[in-house]
Amino acid sequence: RYYAICCQPLVYRNKMTPLRIAVMLGGCWVIPTFISFLPIMQGWNSIGIIDLIQQRQFNKASNSTYCIFMVNKPYAITCSVVAFYIPFLLMVLAYYRIYVTAREHARQIRVLQRAGAPTDDRQHHPDQHSTHRMKTETKAAKTLCIIMGCFCLCWAPFFITNIVDPFINYTVPGKLWTAFLWLGYINSGLNPFLYAFLNKSFRRAFLIILCCGDERYRRPSILGQTVPCSTTTINGSTHVLR
């Protein structure tokens, strides 16, 4: 969403229709179903390693049977690539694009400020709306970078181990597996706190949702009263000048 707002602000509202959002959210559930639930229920993850799984299920010392979950090499690679490595690559590309766009916005704002500067020697005051918008974009980008960093740090050990383990004859200790898995689960618990404490806009959005759209939590316009404005185009982007 932030990528669309940052890089395609003029067409965002037309493209992001409720139906399209519903399809995207549905995809977030359908894709995991096809890479996790369906293959595991069909036993595709255990093809070729059934004997090894049966050996580990039975503990001779305690004469008991355990539930052992192991994956073969094809499934480990496919699942990890689809669930982690491809999303990670897409996020890196998106954040690079956001970074480039943010720098371009900053340059265009400086050009607009110089274009509207007074001809006399009086001190020029920058456009407060443009400055505020740039600060907001920068802070939001930093917030999302922190969230992305936490996601990568929490889930990378698990997905790296998930691919390496089948190639080293499944010698990764069980306790290490458990630690890496719970580290990934912890990331899901961190997200609400990261969103809420790092960015005021997210905090306000949560309050609006929880309080059923209470007007007290809606942000007042930073422009105040409507002021006359004109538009100008720089490098194909349309900007509003007060």
From TrEMBL:
Q: Which PROSITE patterns match?
A: G_PROTEIN_RECEP_F1_2
Q: Which residues cross the membrane?
A: 21-41, 75-98, 143-164, 176-198
- List localization entries: Cell membrane; Endosome membrane
Quick one: a GO biological-process term for this protein?
adenylate cyclase-activating adrenergic receptor signaling pathway
Residues in coiled coil: none
The way this protein sits in the membrane is described as: Multi-pass membrane protein
Query: What's in the keyword line of the UniProt record?
Result: Cell membrane, Disulfide bond, Endosome, G-protein coupled receptor, Glycoprotein, Membrane, Receptor, Transducer, Transmembrane, Transmembrane helix
Q: Where is the G-protein coupled receptors family 1 profile domain?
A: 1-195
Q: Which molecular-function annotation in GO is an example for this chain?
A: G protein-coupled serotonin receptor activity
One GO cellular component term of this record is: endosome membrane
Query: What InterPro entries does the record point to?
Result: 5HT4_rcpt, GPCR_Rhodpsn, GPCR_Rhodpsn_7TM
Task performed by this protein: G-protein coupled receptor for 5-hydroxytryptamine (serotonin), a biogenic hormone that functions as a neurotransmitter, a hormone and a mitogen. Ligand binding causes a conformation change that triggers signaling via guanine nucleotide-binding proteins (G proteins) and modulates the activity of downstream effectors. HTR4 is coupled to G(s) G alpha proteins and mediates activation of adenylate cyclase activity.
Name listed for the protein in its UniProt record: 5-hydroxytryptamine receptor 4
